Amino acid sequence: MTRVVVVDYGMGNRRSVVKALEHVGATVTVTSDVGQVQLAAGLVVPGVGAFPAAMDSLDARGLIAPLRAAAARGTPMLGICLGMQLLLERSVEVAPTEGLGLIAGEVTPLATGGLRVPHIGWNEVSLRRPSPLTAGMPPGGTAFYHVHSFAARPRDAADVIATTTYGEAFATIVGHGSVFGVQFHPEKSSAHGLAMLRAFVALCRDFAEPGAGRRSAAPARA
Q1: Domains along the chain?
Q2: Of the listed 106, 148, 176, 187, which one is catalytic?
Q3: Does 119 participate in catalysis according to the annotation?
Q4: 156-162, long-range: CB within 8 Å, 24+ apart, which pairs?
Q5: What is the pLDDT of residues 68-127, one digit of tens each?
Q6: Which residue among the candidates 23, 185, 204, 209 is catalytic per the annotation?
Q7: CB count, 10 Å around CB of 156?
Q8: Which of 137, 161, 168, 204 has the smallest count of CB within 10 Å of its CB?
């Protein structure tokens, strides 16, 4: 079975993510141990809370450099909710804060046009380009469960895999090389969320077993 590490930095609903990953065939370790992060076939960065506190927590555990190094090696990585936002270069939440810098761009408040914040609920996700992560999605897109107040703004439109609309259209699935992020919660999004996690686990298997016949994702920017 494919060993996926859920990065434990003290923020995030890890239990539901672990159960969903196990359901789709992964062997899951929840850890902040740098050695295990370096050896993982795939990495999941969950997250609930504020961007600066999350980066402080990653820094305190010595995880920032190992995560950047893993991305440079081509290790599949999936950021969920706040974890997706951490993949970008910076956020203005609370105070300007540097992120992991694995996807060019920044995180700013969601422009809801007067709609209630945070954005909570199921919203239709529309695909903008093909991606291995969305192989199990209907071609026209489908709904996923969102809970957030900020939105990722990738600098390069090619890094936007899918968008949704809540007051404004915003990137809800991003990807650059082997690094992916989803603003919604796939672990709470029923069959299509599980299909997305299954696709991610398949990428991890490809990375760990490159001779298995499937194409691994290309390395991401360091």
Answers
A1: 2-212 (3.40.50.880)
A2: 187
A3: no
A4: 156/104, 156/105, 158/129, 159/103, 159/104, 159/105, 160/128, 160/129, 161/127, 161/128, 161/129, 161/131, 161/133, 161/134, 162/125, 162/126, 162/127, 162/128, 162/134
A5: 999 999 999 999 999 999 999 999 999 999 999 999 999 999 999 999 999 999 999 999
A6: 185
A7: 11
A8: 168
Is 204 catalytic? The answer is: no
- pLDDT(213) > 80: no
Q: Give the whole-number percent of the chain exceeding pLDDT 70.
A: 94
Which is catalytic among the residues 81, 106, 148, 204?
Answer: 81
pLDDT of residue 217: 43
Confirm whether 187 is a catalytic residue: yes
